[in-house]
Specification:
The complex is a heterodimer of chains A (356) and B (376).
Chain A: H1 8-13, H2 16-43, H3 48-72, E1 77-82, E2 87-91, H4 98-126, H5 141-164, H6 171-184, H7 202-215, H8 217-237, H9 239-273, H10 282-301, H11 307-329
Antiparallel strand pairs in A: 1-2
Chain B: E1 12-16, H1 24-45, H2 59-79, H3 83-102, H4 108-132, E2 135-139, E3 142-147, E4 153-158, E5 162-168, H5 171-176, E6 179-185, E7 191-204, E8 211-224, E9 232-235, H6 238-251, H7 256-285, E10 294-299, E11 302-304, E12 310-312, E13 316-320, H8 328-375
Antiparallel strand pairs in B: 1-2, 2-3, 3-4, 5-6, 6-9, 7-8, 10-13, 11-12
Classes of the chains: A mainly alpha (356), B alpha+beta (376).
Chain lengths: 356, 376
C-alpha cells in the first residue's frame, strides 16, 4: 500500500471519483435499457408472448427488490405476488421515515443491480478472471477515477475475451450464456401496480429516482457523511476497500450492459425473421447450432489453432448469410393480415370476416 | 363427428384442446433426461474431470443412473406422483439392458448421450399424443371432456350442475395466454385433496437395549384438482374461454324473477291440491240417500229436419234435484274452499301487476330520457 499524502484533493475530491464512475456506467446502463425497450416495443405486436416473458423477468426482480427492501428494514413481508402483469409485496408493518425511504430505494435501484449481481456471481465461478481491484499510487480524484476505469476495463476485456473463446459444446459455457441472455432480457425496472401504464421510459425512471432523492435531502446528506467517514477511515487503513466497493457496482453495471448487448443479436434475429415466410422462419434459428456443430466437426479435420473462435465466426457468418438470403428470396407478403384467416372461423364452421 | 354427439337443440360454442406448452411438467421430464445425458457425455469424454471416469467403464452409467433416480424421487415427492420415479427407473433399466445385450460397455458415455436423446424424443411424442387425445366441447347446454390414448374417458357436465369454477394460470400460461378451468360439480367431482405427511423415527441403544420411537403427522387440504381429461386443461385463449363458461353457467342459474315464478307456481299447485282434497272429502261426506225424482213440468221439444219438416218429439220430463240441508261439516268445507279460491285469486292478481310495473318502468325512463334529450 502506497503512503497516503493528505491534500485537499485526497481529503475531499478523491472520494467522489468512484461515485462519479458508478454514475457514468449506471447512466450508460439506462441508455442501453432504453434501447432494448424500444426494440422490444417494436416486436410487441407480433411477439406478445416473448415481450410478456421479458416483462415477467423484470417484474420478478423488481418484486424481489421490493421484498428485499422490506426485509432489510425489518418491515416483514405479509404477501408476495409476482405475476406477468403485476408484482405486489405487502409489508407486515408499515414503517415510515428512513425505513420507508430505504425500502423505496431498494425498489428503485434493485432492478438495475440485482440481476447483474447474479450474473457477476456466476461469472466469478465460470470466468474467474478479470476481477482486479485498482491499486493506486496517489489518492487523488483523477487517479481514483483512472483506477476505477482500469479495473472495469480489465474485467470487460476478460468477459469479452471469454465470449469470443466461448465453447458452445461445453455445458458450463452454454449455461453461462443462457443466464447472461435470460437475465439480460429483464435487467430493467418494470412498472408495479394494477393499472396499465403505456409509456415507461428512461425519463419516467429518472423522474421517479430524482423525486425520490429530492424528497428527503437530509437522508442524502447523512449518506454522504457516512460515505465520507467510511472513505477517511479506509484512506488510513486500506483505500482499496472504498474504491473496491464502488468498483463492484461498476462491474455490475458493466455486466448489465454486456448482458443487454448480448440480447440484441437475438432481438435482431427475431425482428428479421418477421419478414421471412412462415415456413422458412425457423431456418435462421436452426442455422445457429447446426453451423456451429458442423464447423466444430469440420475443424477437427482441418488443422486450425483457434477452433472455438473460428467455429463461432462461421456460426455468426452463416446465420447472417442465411438470414439475408431468406430475406431476399423468401420474403413474406407485407400486406397479409396478422391473424390467420382460418382463426376467424368459429367452431360451427361458419366463415366470418375480420371486420365486425 | 362432434356434431353427431350433440343433443336436440344443442349448439356448439367452442371446441378446444390443450395448449402445446400446457403439459410442460411432463415435457420437462424429457428435457431433464436430454440435458443430463449431454452433461454426462461431456463430463466423461471432454471435460477436465474426464480422468475421474477412466477407472471403470460403468462409472458414467452409475453416475447417470443415480442422479436420474434421485431426481425421479424428488420430482415424485414434489408432484405426489410415483410414476415419475418408475418412469426414470424404466429408462435406466432399458439402458442397462441394451448395454448388456449389445455389449456396448466400451461406449457407455456416447451411448448415454444417444439413448437420452432417443428416449426423450419418444417421451415428447407420447406427451404430444396424449395432448392431442384431449378434446373439450363447450355447447350451450353442457361441457364435454374427452381424453386418453388407450382408455377413452369422457365426462359431461351440465351448466346447472356446476357449483363452483376454479381457474388457474401459471407463469407459462400468463406468458402464452393459456390456463386451466376446473368446473366443480355439486356432487364434488373436481375436488381433490393435497396430503402432507411428516414422520420421524428415533432409535436408541446400540448393543443390548434398543428403543424405537416413531412420530408422525398429516394434513389434508381440499383443493380443486382433476385429471387433464376431466377439466379444461391449458385452454387457449384462457380469458375468453373463462368468460364464456362463466356466462353460460350464469345463464343457467335461475334469476330472481324465475325464482318468484316457480314459487308462485308451487303455491298454486298447493292450493289446487288442498281444494281437490276438500272436494274429495265433500263428496265422501255426503249421505247416500235415495231421493225420488219429482217430475215438475213437461216439455215438448221440436226439431227441424233437413227437409224442413217439424217433427214433434216425445215429451221429456225435467228432473229437479231436491235441495238438501247441508251438514255443519260440509259448511265448513265449503267455507274453506271459498277461502282457498279467494287466496288463489289474490295470488293470481299480484304477479302480473308486479310484472307490469317492472315493464312500465323502463318505458317511462325511456320517455323521460327522450324528453330530456329534446329539452337539451
Amino acid at each position: 500500500m502506497a503512503p497516503v499524502t493528505l491534500t485537499v484533493d485526497t481529503l475531499f475530491a478523491a472520494m467522489f471519483a468512484p461515485i462519479l464512475g458508478v454514475f457514468i456506467f449506471w447512466f450508460l446502463q439506462l441508455f442501453f435499457i432504453e434501447l432494448q425497450k424500444r426494440m422490444l416495443g417494436r416486436l410487441r405486436h407480433r411477439h406478445e408472448a416473448f415481450c410478456r416473458f421479458t416483462n415477467y423477468i423484470g417484474m420478478l426482480f423488481q418484486t424481489i427488490s421490493q421484498a428485499l427492501g422490506y426485509t432489510v428494514t425489518r418491515s416483514g413481508i405479509a404477501s408476495f405476488q409476482a405475476t406477468v402483469n403485476y408484482g405486489e409485496v405487502e409489508p407486515k408493518k408499515e414503517k415510515e421515515g428512513v425505513f420507508e425511504w430505504i425500502a423505496r430505494s431498494f425498489l428503485l435501484f434493485g432492478p438495475f443491480f440485482i440481476p447483474s449481481g447474479l450474473i457477476l456471481l456466476v461469472s466469478v465461478f465460470v470466468i474467474g478472471r478479470g476481477f482486479v481491484f485498482p491499486a493506486l499510487v496517489q489518492y487523488t480524484f483523477v487517479e481514483s477515477l483512472t483506477g476505477f476505469f482500469a479495473s472495469l476495463t480489465s474485467y470487460a476485456k476478460e468477459v469479452v475475451g471469454f465470449l469470443i473463446d466461448i465453447d458452445l459444446l461445453n455445458p458450463v459455457h452454454v449455461g453461462w450464456l443462457f443466464v447472461l441472455v435470460f437475465l439480460g432480457l429483464g435487467i430493467r425496472p418494470s412498472y408495479i401496480g394494477h393499472e396499465r401504464k403505456e409509456k415507461i421510459d428512461i425519463l419516467y425512471d429518472l423522474r421517479h429516482i430524482k423525486d425520490h432523492l429530492v424528497e428527503k435531502p437530509l437522508y442524502l446528506l447523512v449518506i454522504f457523511l457516512f460515505l465520507y467517514v467510511f472513505y477517511i477511515v479506509s484512506l488510513f487503513l486500506n483505500p482499496v476497500v472504498y474504491i473496491g466497493l464502488f468498483t463492484l457496482f461498476g462491474w455490475m453495471s458493466l455486466t448489465a450492459i454486456i448482458a443487454i448487448l448480448m440480447t440484441f443479436p437475438l432481438l435482431l434475429l427475431i425482428k428479421a425473421t418477421d419478414w421471412i415466410q412462415p415456413q422458412w422462419k425457423i431456418v435462421p434459428f436452426l442455422s445457429v447450432p447446426i453451423s456451429y456443430i458442423v464447423a466444430r466437426v469440420a475443424f477437427l479435420y482441418i488443422p486450425t489453432s483457434q477452433i472455438g473462435r473460428m467455429s463461432l465466426l462461421v456460426m455468426v457468418l452463416s446465420t447472417v448469410v442465411v438470414t439475408i438470403a431468406l430475406l431476399r428470396y423468401k420474403k413474406t407478403n407485407r400486406f397479409k393480415t396478422p391473424p390467420k384467416m382460418k382463426h376467424m372461423r368459429v367452431a360451427d364452421g361458419k366463415k366470418r370476416t375480420s371486420k365486425k | 363427428m362432434v356434431k353427431k354427439e350433440l343433443l336436440k337443440n344443442e349448439q356448439m360454442e367452442r371446441v378446444l384442446s390443450p395448449h402445446p406448452l400446457s403439459f410442460m411438467k411432463l415435457q420437462s421430464l424429457c428435457i431433464f433426461v436430454i440435458v443430463w445425458g449431454i452433461i454426462v457425455w461431456w463430463l466423461t469424454d471432454f471435460s477436465e474431470y474426464a480422468g475421474m471416469f477412466s477407472g471403470n467403464d460403468w462409472f458414467p452409467l452409475i453416475l447417470w443412473g443415480l442422479i436420474l433416480l434421485l431426481v425421479g424421487v424428488i420430482a415424485s415427492l414434489v408432484a405426489i406422483q410415483w410414476s415419475i420415479f418408475f418412469l426414470y427407473l424404466g429408462v435406466l433399466a432399458g439402458a442397462v439392458g441394451l448395454i448388456f445385450w449389445q455389449h456396448w460397455e466400451a461406449y457407455i458415455p456416447l451411448f448415454i448421450f444417444i439413448y437420452s436423446i432417443a428416449v426423450s424424443i419418444v417421451g415428447f411424442l407420447i406427451v404430444e399424443l396424449y395432448r392431442r387425445s384431449h378434446k373439450y366441447i363447450i355447447t350451450n347446454l353442457r361441457i364435454i371432456f374427452k381424453g386418453g390414448i388407450f382408455t377413452k374417458r369422457e365426462r359431461t357436465i351440465r351448466y346447472d350442475k356446476i357449483a363452483d369454477i376454479d381457474a388457474k394460470q401459471g407463469v407459462l400460461g400468463q406468458i402464452f395466454g393459456f390456463g386451466t378451468i376446473i368446473p366443480v360439480s355439486q356432487s364434488g367431482f373436481g375436488l381433490g385433496s393435497d396430503k402432507t405427511m411428516a414422520a420421524g423415527g428415533v432409535e436408541l441403544g446400540s448393543t443390548k437395549a434398543r428403543f424405537f420411537g416413531f412420530a408422525g403427522g398429516g394434513k389434508e387440504v381440499q383443493t380443486p384438482i382433476a385429471r387433464s381429461y376431466y377439466e379444461l386443461h391449458g385452454v387457449y385463449p384462457y380469458k375468453n374461454v373463462k368468460q364464456l363458461v362463466e356466462d353460460l353457467v350464469q345463464s343457467h342459474v335461475p334469476t330472481q324473477y324465475q325464482k318468484e315464478q316457480s314459487e308462485f307456481q308451487k303455491q298454486q299447485v298447493d292450493i289446487q291440491t288442498q281444494m281437490r282434497d276438500l272436494l274429495h272429502k265433500h263428496v265422501s261426506d255426503q249421505p247416500r240417500r235415495k231421493v225420488g225424482r219429482q217430475p215438475v213440468e213437461e216439455e215438448t221439444e221440436e226439431e227441424e229436419t233437413e227437409e224442413g219438416e217439424v217433427v214433434q218429439k216425445v215429451p221429456r220430463k225435467k228432473v229437479v234435484e231436491p235441495e238438501e240441508a247441508f251438514q255443519p261439516e260440509q259448511v265448513d268445507i265449503q267455507q274453506q274452499m271459498k277461502e282457498l279460491l279467494k287466496k288463489q285469486k289474490t295470488a293470481r292478481v299480484n304477479p302480473p301487476e308486479e310484472e307490469e310495473a317492472e315493464e312500465e318502468e323502463p318505458e317511462e325512463e325511456a320517455e323521460e330520457n327522450e324528453e330530456g334529450k329534446e329539452k337539451a
